[in-house]
Amino acid sequence: MRKHSTETVWVGMDVHQDSVTCAILFGDDNEPQVERLPGDLNAVRRMFRRLSERGTPRSCYEASGAGYVLQRSLEHDGFHCEVIAPSLVPKKPGDRRKTDRLDAIHLANHYRAGNLTPVAVPSQEQEEIRQLVRSRLAVQSHVVRLKHRIVRVLATHGHRFTEGKSNWTQKHRVWLRRLHHELDGPLGTVLGHHLEHLEYLEAQKHSLEAEIDRYARSDPFRAKVETLCCFRGIKTLTAMTILTELGDIRRFARPTGLMAFAGLIPSERSSGNVRRRGSITKSGSQELRRVLVEAAWHYRKRAGADLILKRRRMGQNPQVVSIAIKAQHRLKKTFWKIAARKHSCTAVTATARELCGFIWSALVVEAQEA
Q1: Which three-class secondary structure state does DSSP give residue 279?
Q2: Which residue intervals of the chain are DSSP H helices?
């Protein structure tokens, strides 16, 4: 058997539901050994036990729909495995070939060279609650689309709500029920079907919100949720979205890391004396960026705290409350300073970016107190 100059075995994996293609580099070898395995965790685990007889395996694969099941299984067996950010894998602009074998070899070579960026792997509990929060957001999007459809269908047939200034108030819902009883034929059937579907979706949304609230009131989320609720524009659902998307705040050494993770920093293509900055990168978690921007809209208002906000701050860490109050005053100025010369959407994006810094500071304080 050939002896190698190092004990490290580098493994790049291209993972699919029905197959796993592995490129294996022993030490400083240039030519990898490629194996194609069935999409079975036990087959991969057997291969790693075999490789461990010749060295210490260090493996990686790209984040995808395969999730973190393989990573957790290998880590449980004591093998090192990292999940790589696909958007940060180096690629040659002129390379037009892509196969499972080439992708695995590409990962193995770059992983050995240290050119890959791993993502933070959430715990099983955190990932499950994250899916719960995202499910509520998905149901809410269905509710919004269905409401728009109901209004458009009725407007097409000349039925417009004129008893109030806006739709989906109590008066508007009473008008819809009355109209449903008055309409005959296919249009009445369509309206009845949509109203029943809307009632079902809203019941689902309330059920998911109650479940999220139950987790928010228990450890390990309770103290962190109360910390975030000290900020204007952040309540339980927004706080749970932020916490489940972020994970451990201590993985961000500086607030700029959190801003970049949320995709709120401007893109840039500068060279020499020419400096070009574009729109925000929109990288990272879309759900996190959305709730931060929604929260940032609240900082258009006067900086004084209302009664509900004061109640949420009662009994909280004075240092956290001080950070939240400072955020109110500073972010209001930030929004209106930028809105005076640019579009309000640009202003709220910049406000959301600064809000990340205050949230990072508050969560770091909470982590130190825990």
Answers
A1: strand
A2: 41-51, 69-76, 100-113, 124-156, 170-182, 186-216, 222-228, 236-246, 255-261, 286-296, 307-313, 318-339, 344-369
What are residue 342's phi and psi, to 5 degrees? Answer: -135, 175
- Asked if pLDDT for residue 5 goes beyond 80, the answer is no
Q: Are strands 56-62 and 80-84 parallel, antiparallel or unpaired?
A: parallel
What pairing do the DSSP bridges indicate for beta strands 80-84 and 266-268?
A: unpaired
Dihedral sign for Cα atoms in the order 148, 151, 152, 153: positive
Tokens 């009473």 sit at which residue?
A: 174
Q: Distances in Å between the alpha carbon of 223 and those of 156, 247, 280? A: 50, 14, 31
Q: Is the pLDDT of residue 197 over 50?
A: yes
pTM, two decimals, is 0.87
Handedness of CA 168, 174, 176, 177 (dihedral sign): positive
